[in-house]
Amino acid sequence: xxxxxxxxxxxxxxxAERAVRHGGREGAGQALLILLRHSLSEVPRDTGALxxxxxxxxxxxxxxxxxxxxxxxxxxxxxxxxxxxxGGRAKFLENPAADSGVHREMLAEMAGALxxxxx
Length: 119
Prior knowledge:
Layout (H helix, E strand, L loop, with lengths): L1 E2 L2 E2 L6 H27 L8 H4 L1 E5 L5 E5 L4 H6 L15 H5 L1 H18 L2
């Protein structure tokens, strides 16, 4: 604690950094699942293939993305003039991603994962 009359404290944040990284990855994954769930509630319904193509992609970073990779996903997402008699609508990913209520839900999940990892 003291060297040559100088008081000092050595702090090592390795454990905290690992916990934050783990909590960040866990929280991001859970937040992406929330966005996917909200998007699936708005995805156009016909055969169910578009909804079935929805998933999250993550890596070792605290982040990721929601993906719909059916061959016609972009067309269905962008064409606001399409009619969906079986339900759903265009902008099925963009609208939930821009919704402040969905943001709050996602942030709460991320904060909870970080709190849990730091205990």
